[in-house]
Every structure is written in structure tokens, then in C-alpha cells.
Design a protein that fits this description.
Number of helices: 8
Order of helices and strands: EEHHHHEEEEHHHH
Shape: extended
Distance between the termini: 18 Å
Helix content: 40-55%
Structural class: alpha+beta
């Protein structure tokens, strides 16, 4: 959003290449960054703070010294890991042996879907996309959990009948079946059927997804407010 000039070294002439209008400046996107005090030691702003400070002061010598200090610390840490046999495990990147390159673990290369995708945001270094149909998939996952537990319950009941039938005379088979009951209609299950079957709660993933959905919703509200400010 600033002026850009072209300097011709041969004759010393300077030409204006880009001069943004006030309208362009007003449309500048607001930058959202993690607060400095909340950053970890290896996040760029905190890690390179002394180098950045020297550059802003125009002290190139100091900036070079601070950069050298950082690089030496990294070399020493790598040497210590080699000597101790400690494997370095990056949190956000993986090594692609085929291309011999490091790739971001959570890259999402699918096309943006304007009908389903609401916003993309970063949380703890992981890029995530808020989607309109996430709650629908959550419901599907919940139904799958219930069906899986019903299947296990029916299998257990079937084994129970088989054991009791083998232990009792054939004329007692009816009483045996009634002692190991199963749901009569799987198709008509409601959200409370898990408790009816003796399952007090769904799988742990459902609980995590629900909490995660709340976090995403909160983040999206903030993003939507920022977008409204930008449009204004």
C-alpha cells in the first residue's frame, strides 16, 4: 500500500512504478497475528526479534551478528541430537523421500467451495477450514457410533443366547432368549437410544469434535466481523 519506484542505475533516473490511491489504502487487509507474549520460542517473530530490531535500526552489522548466534544455536542443537541419537520430529512438516523436500503436514489442496466453505484459519500452526456442513457430518458420525455399539450389543446378545441354548434343554430355549434381549427396531433409534441400550455416552471423538466445533464457531465469528469491517 506504499509507493514503489524504479531506479535506473545507468543514468540515475527514478520512475514512479506504483502509487496506490486512498481507496486502495482503505481496502488494505487487516493483519491478524498471535500476540507476542503468547508465541512459543520457535515462532518467527519471537525467534528473530533481535535480528528484526537491528534491521529496523539500520544496524546491518548487529543484525548479522544476531543471525549468526541463532544459526550457531541450531547447529549445536543438531550436533547434540546426532551424538545422543535423538530423532528430530517436526510438528508441522514431513519429509517427502520421493522429492527430497519438506512438506506441510496439513496442506489442503482441494479447490475452494464457495457453497460449503466459510473461512480458513490457523490454530496452533494447523490450517483449518470452517464448513457449513460440518454439523451434518458430526450427526452422521454420531449415528455411526450408535450403530457400531448396537452391532456389538446384538453380537454379545447372540453369543449369550448361544451359550445358554447349549447349556439348557431345547424346551427351555424360549426362556433363554428372553433373558438376553436385543432392541427390536434398529431403524427407529433416537439420540437417547444410546442410554436405552446401556451406553451412557458416545465415543470420545464425538466429544472432542463438539468442543472443536465450538472453538471453530468462535473463531469464525471473529473472522466474519473482520470481513464486515473490510467491506465497510
Amino acid at each position: 500500500d506504499g509507493e514503489v519506484h524504479i531506479n535506473e542505475l545507468k543514468n540515475g533516473n527514478t520512475e514512479m512504478f506504483w502509487n496506490p490511491t486512498s481507496e486502495v489504502r482503505r481496502q488494505r487487509l487487516k493483519r491478524h497475528i498471535v500476540l507476542f507474549e503468547e508465541q512459543t520460542d520457535f515462532e518467527s517473530e519471537r525467534l528473530w526479534q533481535h535480528v528484526t530490531s537491528a534491521i529496523n535500526k539500520g544496524d546491518q552489522h548487529k543484525a548479522t551478528q544476531e543471525k549468526f548466534v541463532l544459526e550457531e544455536e541450531q547447529r549445536n542443537a543438531a550436533r547434540e541430537r546426532r551424538e545422543s541419537g535423538t530423532e528430530w520430529k517436526p510438528l508441522l512438516f514431513r519429509h517427502d523421500a520421493g522429492t527430497n523436500e519438506w512438506r506441510y503436514k496439513y496442506e489442503d489442496l482441494r479447490p475452494w467451495d464457495p457453497l460449503n466453505d466459510i473461512a480458513q484459519f490457523e490454530k496452533d500452526g494447523i490450517l483449518q477450514t470452517m464448513e457449513r456442513h460440518l454439523s451434518t457430518r458430526m450427526s452422521n458420525h454420531k449415528a455411526t457410533c450408535i450403530n457400531n455399539q448396537i452391532t456389538r450389543h446384538k453380537r454379545s446378545a447372540k453369543d449369550c443366547r448361544r451359550r445358554k441354548t447349549s447349556d439348557q434343554p431345547s424346551n427351555h430355549s424360549q426362556n433363554t432368549e428372553s433373558s438376553c434381549s436385543t432392541p427390536e427396531s434398529v431403524q427407529e433409534l433416537s439420540d437417547d437410544d444410546g442410554k436405552y441400550l446401556g451406553f451412557e455416552s458416545l465415543c470420545a471423538q464425538c466429544g472432542k469434535e463438539m468442543n472443536h466445533l465450538k472453538e471453530i464457531h468462535s473463531a469464525v465469528l471473529s473472522l466474519q466481523k473482520a470481513q464486515q469491517d473490510i467491506h465497510r
